[in-house]
Amino acid sequence: MSDPSAPQPASAEARKIRIAIVDDSIVVRGLFSRWLAEEADIEIVGIHRNGLEALRNVGIAKPDVVLLDIEMPEMDGLTALPLILQKSPGTRVLVVSSLSHRGADITLKCLMRGATDYLSKPSAMGSGETPAEFRQSLVARIRAIGAPTPARAAAVAAGAHPPGGAEAHGAGAAPRKKLSPEASAAVMKAAKTRPHLLLLGAATGGPQAVAALLDSLGPIIDEVPVVIAQHMPAIFTQMFAAHLKRQLCVESIEIEGGEVLKPGVIHVCAGGQNSLIRRSGADLTVLLQPGNGETRTLPSIDLLFASAAREVGAGVVAIALTGLGTDGAQGALAVSSAGGVVMAQDQTSSVVWGIPGAVARTGTCALIDDVQGLAEGVRLLFDHG
C-alpha cells in the first residue's frame, strides 16, 4: 500500500517544478539537465557555472528548487546560498556535493544557513549508489521539496526566507511567542509530571528547525537532558553537534553509546545507527543499535521515542519537527500511551510536513505549532510542572 504522506508526481495539468542547476562541471550540468528534461513535471529555468551567474538570474526566474554545487570558481555555493535565498524568497536549495569530510562540513554549514536538503554526487557515493539510483533519488528529492507548500507561499508573499531558514545566533535570542489560552490549556492538560527528558525528531529541513527550537528554549536546556534524532549519515552528526555547540553556547555531543544523559547537554544521536534510551539505576543512558543499512532514515525517531516512553514514562516530552516520511508516528503513540507529552511542528512552518504530519494524524499531540510556539509549550511544562 502506498504512503499517502509521500510526495507524488505532479499531474499534467499542475504547474511544473522550476529548477535551476548551478555547477562548475559541464559533465554534471549536462547530465542533470538531460535527466530532468525527461520529467514531465519539471522545467529547467536556469543552468549556471557558478554562484555569481546564478545570482544574475535567480531573482528573475524564481526557481522552486536550486541544485547547488559547493566548490565553484568566482563564487562558491556557501557564499551564494544566502544571496540566492534573499533574491528569491521561497526557493528551496538542494546542495549536491561530495561526502568527503571537508565537503560534509561545508554541506552542513549550508543546511544550518538555509539549504533545505542535500545529495552526494554519484562520483562521491560511498554507499555504492549507481547513477540510475542517484537519478531516482534526485528526482524524488526535487518533488518532495519543490512542491507548493504553505511555508513557501507565505515566504513569497512576505518577501522573506521560509520559516526555519535562518541560522540561530545564540541561546535565548529568538523572540517568545504567546500561546492562545486554548493551546496553553491543552498542553497543561497533557502534562502528568515535570519533564525529565526532551526528545526532538527531524529529517528534511531539520538542522535549522532544531537549532531554532533550542535557541528559543534558552535556559530551559540547563534543566533537562536533550536528545536529537536527526536523519543524517554518520559523517554529519559529530559536525552537527559541534555546530549546535558553537551557535547555542551549550554543551553538545554526538552519542557514542553508554553515556549518562545529563541536563544542560544536547545529545545528538549518531548517524547510521539507532539510539535507545535505557535506565541504569537513577541514571538514563543510551544504547547504540546497528541500523538496517539505509543511512538516510537513521537514527530512527520511532525507536528513540518508544524506548524513552518505556524507560521514562510520563516524564518524556517528544517533539516531531520537519522532515520527509512518517518516522516518529509509532513512537509518538508509545510516548502518549505512557503519559508523556507529544508535540509537532505545524504545516505552515515545516519544509516538509511528512514526519510532523504523520505524528499529528495520530491524535496524540498536545500542541501543533511553529518552533517558537513549541518552545513556549515546553516552557509552560517547566513553569507549571
Structure characteristics:
Rossmann fold, 20% strand, 385 residues, five-stranded parallel sheet, 2 domains, alpha/beta, seven-stranded parallel sheet, disordered N terminus
Task: Tell me the layout of helices and strands.
Layout: E1 17-22, H1 26-37, E2 42-48, H2 51-61, E3 65-68, H3 77-87, E4 92-97, H4 101-112, E5 117-120, H5 131-146, H6 150-158, H7 181-190, E6 197-202, H8 206-217, E7 226-230, H9 234-248, E8 251-254, E9 265-268, E10 273-280, E11 283-290, H10 301-312, E12 316-320, H11 329-337, E13 341-345, H12 355-360, E14 365-369, H13 371-383
Parallel strand pairs: 1-2, 1-3, 3-4, 4-5, 6-7, 6-12, 7-9, 8-9, 12-13, 13-14
Antiparallel strand pairs: 10-11
Helix pairs in contact: 2-3, 4-9, 8-9, 8-13, 10-11
